Amino acid sequence: MTQHPPAERIVVLTGAGISKESGLETFRDADGLWSRHNIDDVCTPEGFLRDPMLVSRFYNGRRAELAGVEPNAAHRALAELEQAARDGSWDGELLIVTQNIDDLHERAGSRNVVHMHGELRRVRCMSCGATPECQGDCLPQTPCPACRHPTLRPDIVWFGEIPMHMARIDAALAACDRFVTIGTSGTVYPAAGFVAQVRDHADTLDINLEAPAIPTLFDRTLVGPATRMVPRWVA
Ligand code: BJW
Questions:
Q1: What is the predicted pLDDT for the residue at 64?
Q2: What band does 215 get if pLDDT is binned at 50, 70 and 90?
Q3: What is the pLDDT of residues 111-156, one digit of tens each?
Q4: pLDDT at residue 5, rounded to an integer
Q5: pLDDT digits over 47-61, tens only?
Q6: What is the DSSP string of the chain?
Q7: Is 184 in the pocket of ligand 1 (CB under 6 A)?
Q8: Is 37 assigned a catalytic role?
Q9: Which CATH architecture has domain 25-68+120-156?
Q10: Which pLDDT value is given to residue 213?
Q11: CB 117 less than 6 A from any atom of ligand 1
Q12: What is the residue with the minimal CA distance to atom 72 of ligand 1?
């Protein structure tokens, strides 16, 4: 019989490392996206205003990659834990706060997912704020289906912008008993500061392929690939 974690309210923060074994790139690993793309060009509002086509090509390329990959054992293990809460076999609550813009948590079956850095499958109208879904390539000069304004940007949080759903995330962090990070370098704020927010009231665990180079604020670390370590932690 499966023994799920004992804590009642768990917040899991995921980063690019959880999707790496599905075939998506991370950002800051040696072979990551930032080794080939300039952050200021593709990941800032100023970069988009300078060259919307360059930014659109960057995200269209990532949309194409996402279409060719599947959730992995780590995504599925989290979805199974949430399902256990739903069917009553685990007396707990799980919220996934993801920095990822892919939809692999949802495709694995998770429903309680908050995308704090936006979603690849949506674009945002720079006039009315509508966030329609976009299939295949999305181009900035496409008219918004709601207001016809011809400037749709990726629905992504770039540097200098405020991450999404922060009120819900802060409330979940304040109420959680356990906080687990999976596959994130912990370099980008505000997500990097969540462990400091919870450590006086929650048990904290970091799951990462690499052992931390410097001491961290986490109570425990599990070192290894997410597809091995997350099912082991959830079981
Ligand atoms: C595995 C694995 C396997 C690999 N198994 N593990 C100076 C000090 C402090 C803050 C700032 C500062 N100057 C500027 C700031 C703010 C800035 C910031 O933090 N900058 C830092 C770089 C210093 N932050 C912002 O601007 C944010 N906004 C903000 O702060 O607004 C103010 C505000 C906040 C709150 C309330 C009110 C006001 C916005 C940040 C936007 C980030 N956007 C991006 C790109 C968009 C999405 C996209 O294109 O995909 O988000 S940047 C990029 O980094 C992306 C990611 O979500 C994010 C985090 O990266 P992640 O996921 O951690 O990936 P990596 O590559 O870094 O790490 C992968 C990890 O996986 C590694 O550790 C591997 O070891 C591991 N791994 N394989 C397990 N198989």
A1: 95
A2: confident
A3: 999 999 999 999 999 999 999 998 889 988 899 999 999 889 999 9
A4: 62
A5: 999 999 999 999 999
A6: -----S-SEEEEEE-HHHHHTTT---SSSTTSGGGTS-HHHHSSHHHHHH-HHHHHHHHHHHHHHHHT----HHHHHHHHHHHHHHTTSS--EEEEEE---S-HHHHHT--SEEETTEEEEEEEETTT----B--S---TTSPPTTT--S-EEEEE--TTSPPTTHHHHHHHHHH-SEEEEES--S-STTGGGHHHHHTTTSEEEEEESS--SS--S-SEEEES-HHHHHHHHH-
A7: yes
A8: no
A9: 2-Layer Sandwich (3.30)
A10: 84
A11: yes
A12: 185
The yes/no answer on whether domain 1-24+70-117+163-235 falls in CATH 1.10.3720.10 is no
Residue nearest to atom 1 of ligand 1 (CA): 17
Out of 159, 214, 228, give the residue to mutate to test ligand 1, the one with the largest number of ligand atoms within 8 Å of its CB. 159
pLDDT band of residue 3 (cuts 50, 70, 90) is low
At 154-169, the pLDDT tens digits run 999 999 999 999 999 9
Catalytic residue, from 117, 149, 165, 201: name it: 117
**Every domain of the chain and the residues it spans:** 1-24+70-117+163-235, 25-68+120-156
- Residue 101 counted as an annotated binding residue: yes
Regarding the beta carbon of 60 and ligand 1, being less than 6 Å apart is answered no
- Is residue 35 lining ligand 1, measured as CB closer than 6 Å? no
